[in-house]
């Protein structure tokens, strides 16, 4: 096997095995190991027509002691449960979820990048309605799969500020819709605005609250945070996906002696922020240099050039330090797989 760990991107690649579990006749079966990257299902499966699907994303890291670390995957299991309740998928029990993740990581151990490369093994749990229905109703059969692939840092340029644009043309989620659930439908709804942002040279789109277009919601695939007066501020809204990275950063900020505020953030407040960033599993923190609100002809600037803000950098280093086992895990976030 010959992988150029240092130049890995964030793209699809094949590994040896994936782990599957089927829900039939009202119950979950045993975990099954597969070496195929294909699935077969009825063409009327509810995931295909009615978006009955949920996914998760987490990473396995190799420490300098060579041991494999998983970060807060009990939280991913809980979140998938909430997504399931939200769109009527069969709930995957915590033990099946965690067991499948552990198995998929262990079986593909040779694909976990060495410590020090900045790369990791991305773990993608997926839950889909496979039962055939033609009327709009939940499936009676489901498939839960966990597959993995080695990935480099999300942004190849490394920990450097990017520019993003506010989108007023589209919303990714309705005020009482499914924005707080990790479901594919939200991503389908975000494709046009994220593609438009890319086309115009921005890293991603920033959504405002769908009702009043007054407050900041989140980026396409990542939460939003800001730093001001030694305070970590992140939006509170029903249509934001509760990010495990954001939750962890709030804890770290508190631990660093900062104040933490979770509240609606009006767009005009951007004027006063010292640092802003996006956060999520893929990139941990993406510092933001500039936010362009072209509909009202405004640009908010935060940092100049390639130097991220000091606090964002500190938070980033702490969190990846814990994930890779270089910094003591005093919060009990890490599970070592032996
Ligand atoms: C997954 C996701 C995030 C990031 O969540 P993490 O748990 O930190 O990876 C943020 N926003 C959306 C819309 C997401 O789907």
Essential attributes:
alpha+beta, 9-stranded mixed sheet, 338 residues, 9-stranded antiparallel sheet, D-amino Acid Aminotransferase, Chain A, domain 2, D-amino Acid Aminotransferase, Chain A, domain 1, 6 helices
Quick structural summary:
By secondary structure, the chain is α+β, with helices and mostly antiparallel strands.
Describe this structure in words.
There is one protein chain. With 338 residues, the chain is α+β, with helices and mostly antiparallel strands. It folds into two domains: 5-151, D-amino Acid Aminotransferase, Chain A, domain 1 (2-Layer Sandwich), CATH 3.30.470; 162-323, D-amino Acid Aminotransferase, subunit A, domain 2 (D-amino Acid Aminotransferase, Chain A, domain 2, Alpha-Beta Barrel). The protein is 22% helix and 28% strand. The strands form two sheets. Strands 1, 2, 3, 4, 5, 6, 7, 8 and 18 form a nine-stranded antiparallel sheet that branches. Strands 9, 10, 11, 12, 13, 14, 15, 16 and 17 form a nine-stranded mixed sheet that branches. It starts with 17 loop residues before the first strand and ends with a strand. The structure holds pyridoxal-5'-phosphate (PLP).
Mean pLDDT: 96
Q: Which bin fits the share of residues in helices? A: 10-25%
SS elements, strand count = 18
Largest sheet: 9 strands, antiparallel
Output the structural class.
alpha+beta
* Shape category: globular
Strand content: 25-35%
Bound molecules: pyridoxal-5'-phosphate
CATH hierarchy class name of the largest domain: Alpha Beta
Order of helices and strands: EEEHEEEHHEEEHEEEEHEEEEHE
- Helices, by number, come to 6
How many domains comprise the coordinates?
2
Q: What is the rounded distance between the termini? A: 23 Å
**CATH structural fold name of the largest domain:** D-amino Acid Aminotransferase, Chain A, domain 2
Cα-based radius of gyration, to the nearest Å = 20 Å
At CATH level 2, the architecture of the largest domain is Alpha-Beta Barrel
Specify the CATH homologous superfamily of the largest domain: D-amino Acid Aminotransferase, subunit A, domain 2
């Amino acid at each position: 096997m010959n992988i150029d760990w240092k130049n890995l991107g964030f793209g699809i690649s094949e590994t040896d095995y994936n782990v599957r579990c089927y829900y039939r006749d009202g119950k979950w079966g045993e975990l099954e190991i597969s070496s195929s990257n294909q699935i077969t299902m009825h063409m009327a499966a509810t995931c295909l027509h009615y978006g009955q699907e949920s996914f998760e994303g987490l990473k396995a890291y190799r420490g300098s002691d060579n041991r494999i670390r998983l970060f807060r995957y009990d939280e991913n299991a809980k979140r998938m449960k909430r997504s399931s309740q939200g769109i009527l998928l069969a709930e995957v029990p915590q033990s099946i979820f965690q067991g499948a993740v552990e198995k998929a990581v262990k079986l593909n151990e040779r694909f976990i990048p060495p410590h020090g490369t900045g790369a990791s093994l991305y773990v993608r749990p997926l839950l889909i309605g496979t039962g055939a229905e033609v009327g709009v109703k939940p499936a009676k059969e489901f498939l839960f799969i966990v597959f993995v692939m080695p990935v480099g840092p999300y942004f190849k340029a490394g920990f450097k500020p990017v520019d993003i644009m506010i989108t007023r043309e589209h919303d990714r989620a309705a005020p009482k819709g499914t924005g707080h659930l990790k479901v594919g439908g939200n991503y389908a709804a975000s494709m046009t605005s994220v593609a438009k942002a890319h086309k115009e040279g921005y890293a991603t789109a920033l959504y405002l609250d769908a009702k009043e277009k007054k407050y900041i919601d989140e980026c396409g695939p990542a939460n939003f945070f800001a730093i001001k007066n030694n305070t970590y501020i992140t939006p509170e809204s029903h249509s934001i996906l509760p990010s495990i990275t954001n939750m962890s950063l709030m804890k770290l900020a508190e631990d660093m002696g900062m104040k933490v505020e979770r509240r609606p953030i009006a767009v005009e407040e951007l004027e006063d922020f010292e640092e802003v960033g996006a956060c999520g599993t893929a990139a941990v923190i993406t510092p933001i240099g500039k936010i362009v609100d072209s509909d009202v002809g405004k640009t908010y600037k935060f940092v100049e050039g390639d130097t991220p803000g000091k606090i964002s950098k500190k938070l980033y280093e702490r969190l990846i330090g814990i994930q890779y086992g270089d910094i003591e895990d005093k919060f009990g976030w890490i599970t070592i797989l032996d």
